[in-house]
UniProtKB/TrEMBL annotation:
UniProt keyword Iron, yes or no: no
Residue(s) at site: Interacts with tRNA: 103, 189, 192, 306, 309
Protein name: tRNA-dihydrouridine(20/20a) synthase
Keywords on record: Flavoprotein, FMN, NADP, Nucleotide-binding, Oxidoreductase, RNA-binding, tRNA processing, tRNA-binding
Record carries keyword Oxidoreductase: yes
Organism lineage string: Bacteria, Pseudomonadati, Pseudomonadota, Betaproteobacteria, Burkholderiales
Active site: 106 (proton donor)
EC number of the protein: 1.3.1.91
Residue stretches making up the DUS-like FMN-binding domain: 21-314
Functional summary from the UniProt entry: Catalyzes the synthesis of 5,6-dihydrouridine (D), a modified base found in the D-loop of most tRNAs, via the reduction of the C5-C6 double bond in target uridines. Specifically modifies U20 and U20a in tRNAs.
Species of origin: Giesbergeria anulus
Gene3D superfamilies listed in its UniProt record: 1.20.120.1460, Aldolase class I (3.20.20.70)
Catalytic activity: 5,6-dihydrouridine(20) in tRNA + NAD(+) = uridine(20) in tRNA + NADH + H(+); 5,6-dihydrouridine(20) in tRNA + NADP(+) = uridine(20) in tRNA + NADPH + H(+); 5,6-dihydrouridine(20a) in tRNA + NAD(+) = uridine(20a) in tRNA + NADH + H(+); 5,6-dihydrouridine(20a) in tRNA + NADP(+) = uridine(20a) in tRNA + NADPH + H(+)
Cofactor: FMN
Molecular function GO terms recorded: flavin adenine dinucleotide binding; FMN binding; tRNA binding; tRNA-dihydrouridine20 synthase activity; tRNA-dihydrouridine20a synthase activity
Amino acid sequence: MLHSPPSLKTPKAHSLWRMSVAPMLDWTDRHCRFFHRLLSQRALLYTEMVNAGAIVHGGTERHLRFNAEEHPVALQLGGSEREVLVRSARLGQAWGYDEINLNCGCPSERVQRGAFGACLMQEPSLVADCIKAMVDVVEVPVTVKHRIGIDKNEDYGFVRDFVGTVAEAGCKVFIVHARNAWLKGLSPKENRQVPPLRYGVVAQLKQDFPHLTIAINGGFTDDASVQAQLQQVDGVMVGREVYHNPWWLSRWDEVFYGDAPQTLTREAVEATMVEYMAREAAQHGTHWYAIARHMLGLRHGLRGARHWRQVWSNHRLKDLPAHAVMALAHQPPSGPD
């Protein structure tokens, strides 16, 4: 039987969106979210962006299946066709997701060709129409994740009017990536690094819309930077830092929610993941290698971490059972670390 994380507690006076792990394409699948939930019971977890059309056209189970242990968990949709989004939102609620989120922030050319993602910020009335349609058919929150601007236009009025228009349609929660999205000339990776972070824009949104829940995303790597933002806005979403250094998550419940310190150990988390790998192999035929990739940062910064990581990512060990790989990972390395 899987080791169970401690019982979830009702978040005191804190918003559901106080701390969250960002949707990250090819990374935050259900295996990654199971792993992250072992580390924090409070953080809100997001799926990768899922094409709404793929959900309704035959890929429902493949795209929506998740582990009960993941709650609270949000489904992020990509799309701009109202009826398709409505059907996807209904399915997301039926499958048990705690939130439906519309992606209005992804700048990739592939997403732009589908007429959704960040380019939707240029059509606030369309976004509002889609949001209202989803709000009307589901009971869970319908939220939006977006940027603070498009290309090099840094006019605050652009994002203020976008938020105001969409809020009138019934959206009460906005997760704001504090960079512009440059739709031409930058890769998705460069769009996370080149456009300057402008946290003040997000703080201004909170001042102008005090009745809305405003969470901020972009560039957070430590407790202090997060705490500073929690004095300005309602929540902080963290992405790649958590993926590469997941043990930071194990502090969140204590530092950002005031819970008692966890007694969790990396060894216990790894053992639970190995049990999960066995369950996934038996139930769904999932190979442990597809799961282990998400926990390669678990021993980040510790002595022996390189050897441990190399063992868990060694494709020549694929034929071994996961518990045997774990044993090898904890044997002393044969050479310098």
